[in-house]
Amino acid sequence: MAFRMAVFGFCAAIFFLSHSGTVFADDDKEKAAVASEEDGKFFDKDGTPTFRISADGTVDWYTFSGYRRYHSDCHVCHGPDGVGSSYAPALASSLKKLDYASFLSIVAEGRKNVGGGKENVMPAFGDNKNVYCYLDDIYVYLRARAVEAAPRGRPPKKADKPKGAKDYEASCMGG
């Protein structure tokens, strides 16, 4: 009985430690704060792409584009609005602990997790231009969802598409 209680206590501690990121949502929002802007694309103090949502609910172009791209390719497995499914994890929650470089790597190269008699496979999307050319957009959208800055569903208002986004899209897609 004492052994079971010790195992239960250990598992409970691991659970609470692994889920502690949800407690510090304000800290996460602060980390995602806009520090700079370049042609309509926003960055945090570390130079990582981030979102900007105005008081009236207008999202920057990249957040809106990320919403569209996520729902065209990612939601099938990861559920609407990044909330997960019985098939794949909630990316809005994953981004609370996953850094930008790791996100890019996993999406481009894929990932395989095996444990507890279960195998989860994230296919590689590095060759899929409809995903890879918009990775920053998808990341920005999920980052906004992770800190609950963007509500579920289609953003009600969006900023216009900046020239830099048009130019990058044309060069990446080969147009």
Word description of this protein:
The protein is α+β, with helices and mostly antiparallel strands and 175 residues long. It has one domain (35-173): Orthogonal Bundle (Cytochrome Bc1 Complex, Chain D, domain 2), CATH 1.10.760. It has eight helices and seven strands. The chain has helices at residues 2-18, 25-31, 61-78, 91-94, 100-109, 129-132, 135-146, 163-173; strands at 36-38, 41-43, 49-50, 58-59, 111-115, 118-122, 157-158. It has a three-stranded antiparallel sheet with strand order 1-2-3. Helix 3 packs across helix 7 (135-146). Residues 1-25 have low confidence and may be disordered. Residues 151-175 are annotated as: Disordered. One of its GO terms (molecular function) is metal ion binding. Residues 1-25 form the signal peptide. Keywords: Heme, Iron, Metal-binding, Signal. InterPro entries: C-typ_cyt_methanol_metab-rel, Cyt_c-like_dom, Cyt_c-like_dom_sf.
Could you outline the blueprint of secondary structure elements for this entry?
Elements: H1 2-18, H2 25-31, E1 36-38, E2 41-43, E3 49-50, E4 58-59, H3 61-78, H4 91-94, H5 100-109, E5 111-115, E6 118-122, H6 129-132, H7 135-146, E7 157-158, H8 163-173
Short overview:
This protein is of the alpha+beta class. The chain has helices spanning 2-18, 25-31, 61-78, 91-94, 100-109, 129-132, 135-146, 163-173, and strands spanning 36-38, 41-43, 49-50, 58-59, 111-115, 118-122, 157-158. The protein is 47% helix and 13% strand.
